[in-house]
Specification:
Strands 1-4-5-6-8-9-10-12 form an eight-stranded antiparallel beta barrel. The longest helix is centred in the N-terminal third of the chain and has 29 residues. The protein is 18% helix and 45% strand. The protein contains two helices and twelve strands; from the N terminus they run H-E-E-E-E-E-H-E-E-E-E-E-E-E. The termini are far apart.
């Protein structure tokens, strides 16, 4: 009888160790590190702007653009980050004088991928319902001031205001963004906090993974001058 009691006790201890130590080892030693936040690349060199490409005019989204999300997770008491991204981004903006006068961008959420297939199924299904709401869209509602761009027109930052539509709901957002002009291209990057309830999104928590009630939408978008 005592032997069985010892075995049961050892089994209980083993279960506790697996439940506590296992997730710690997985998150801290096995699981891949979450990718860094999307950001612009530094310009190749000061004054590297292609003088044959005028700044004024319409610029369209080019290859290499990415839009994604970042959400903090707690898995069995261990902190982690869930990150997903898509390269299916479209849109354009127009520069007149020292202002971006209009801009509209869309990201295809049906191709959003993370490093976990189970998370992606939850994202596509119960969380974002991409069958009904396949895209996220941002439309600028106020001109962007470009006067802070340096004399060589290579780097600058500004604040943008627009309407963000996610999960079928639209909210006004204001956020900081950075821009780099290098050669014949422009790249912008930025991020904005997203409170899930503001867009009718249920808290993504499920099973052993618990999340906060908010996340971050981040982007790094490349542009080329419209032909």
């Amino acid at each position: 009888m005592k032997t069985w009691q010892k075995l049961v006790g050892l089994a209980a201890i083993a279960a506790i160790l697996i439940g506590v130590v296992g997730p710690y080892v997985y998150i801290n030693f096995i699981k891949e590190e979450a990718p860094e936040a999307l950001d612009v690349a530094p310009p190749v060199a000061a004054g590297s702007v292609d003088p044959s490409v005028e700044l004024e005019g319409t610029w369209v989204v080019a290859d290499g653009s990415q839009v994604g999300y970042r959400v903090k997770e707690i898995l069995f008491g261990q902190s982690s980050e869930a990150v997903g991204r898509t390269s299916d981004v479209t849109g354009s903006f127009t520069i007149t004088g020292a202002q971006v006068t209009e801009g509209r961008f869309e990201a295809d959420l049906t191709t959003m991928k993370s490093n976990e297939e189970r998370r992606d199924r939850q994202f596509q299904g119960r969380i974002m319902n991409t069958a009904s709401y396949p895209t996220a869209r941002l439309t600028l509602t106020q001109p962007l001031d470009l006067s802070s761009i340096d004399p060589q027109q290579t780097e600058g930052s500004t604040t943008a205001t627009g309407d963000l539509t996610v999960h079928g709901m639209t909210r006004s957002v204001t956020f900081d963004l950075k821009g780099v002009r290098s050669g014949s291209t422009i790249q912008i990057s930025g991020s904005m906090p997203i409170v899930f309830a503001d867009y009718g999104i249920d808290n993504p928590s499920g099973g052993p993974a618990q999340t906060e009630d908010n996340g971050v939408l981040e982007f790094a978008i490349n542009f080329e001058k419209e032909a």
